[in-house]
Amino acid sequence: MSLKKLLKEKGYHRIDLEFTKTSHLELVAKINDIEGNFILDTGASSTCVGLEAVEHFKLLAEDSDVKAAGAGATDMLTQIAQKNSIEIMGWKKKKIDLVLFDLKHVNQALTDHKAEKVHGIIGADILKKGKAIIDYKNKALYLK
């Protein structure tokens, strides 16, 4: 039996992934019913949206004491947007809190390598909630 068939029987949703030119896994997700491009990052503890995408997703930003670090930048100020919905290819969750911070350095690195900019990062919080299984060979993410 294939992994795809086995996981479908267990109630998982299959999400197609694309490799960017920077070898990141990318997917399309909807935040509050608005579509955007996201990098899948198992090393990111929280799902994040770039400050420049706050209006795009109609997010309500609140100040946060959390400092973000990653991808060569540290001590970045963040905001938080609480109680949002997320949908990834039929898999849905409500009451999701999103970390908002400046993704310019991430998008600059992507565009430097002729890759598309992203609206945000899908992090470990969503992967845990969805009991994620990543199939690198077949470029698929499974969420339950």
What can you see in these coordinates?
With 144 residues, the protein is an alpha+beta fold. It has a single domain, classed as Cathepsin D, subunit A, domain 1 (Beta Barrel). 15% of the residues lie in helices and 48% in strands. It has 3 helices and 11 strands. It has helices spanning 3-9, 104-112, 124-129; strands spanning 13-16, 18-19, 25-31, 34-40, 48-50, 62-70, 73-88, 91-101, 120-122, 133-135, 140-143. The strands form 2 sheets. It has a 6-stranded mixed barrel with strand order 3-4-9-5-8-7. A 3-stranded antiparallel β-sheet has the order 1-11-10, covered by helices on one side. A hairpin with a 4-residue loop joins strand 10 and strand 11 (140-143). The longest helix has 9 residues, at 104-112. The two termini are 19 Å apart.
Topology overview:
Blueprint: H1 3-9, E1 13-16, E2 18-19, E3 25-31, E4 34-40, E5 48-50, E6 62-70, E7 73-88, E8 91-101, H2 104-112, E9 120-122, H3 124-129, E10 133-135, E11 140-143
Parallel strand pairs: 4-9, 5-8
Antiparallel strand pairs: 1-11, 2-3, 3-4, 3-7, 5-9, 6-7, 7-8, 10-11
Strand content: over 45%
Task: Identify low-pLDDT runs.
Answer: none
Strand tally, please? Answer: 11
- Looking at the structure, what is the overall shape? globular
Per CATH, the architecture is Beta Barrel
Overall CATH class: Mainly Beta
Radius of gyration: 15 Å
| Helicity level | 10-25%
CATH superfamily: Acid Proteases
- How far the N terminus sits from the C terminus, by CA atoms, comes to 19 Å
Pfam families: Asp_protease_2
Keywords: Hydrolase, Protease
Organism: Christiangramia fulva
Protein name: Acid protease
